[in-house]
Design a protein that fits this description.
The chain is mainly beta. Helix content is 0%, strand content 28%. It is globular.
């Protein structure tokens, strides 16, 4: 039996979702770069025709623009 240290976290990796149509992006990003310390940015072109940036840090992920809230 393998024991994990308490400091290790189980991090689930999700595919980025388009903030406009909520489609998971399985294709490769069109561009990627580093933003600050430890944050990577990937730009995706969705099948809906719109682009968005997907930010990933060791602690969280987010998109710009933010997802639209349902009315």
């Amino acid at each position: 039996m393998i024991k994990k240290r308490k400091s290790e976290k189980n991090i689930m990796i999700f595919e980025p979702k388009c903030p406009y149509c909520h489609t998971e992006q399985i294709d490769k990003s069109t561009k990627s770069w580093e933003y600050g310390v430890g944050v990577t940015v990937d730009r995706f072109l969705c099948i809906c025709g719109r682009t968005f940036n997907y930010y990933k840090s060791p602690n969280m992920t987010w998109t710009i623009p933010k997802p639209e809230k349902p009315s």
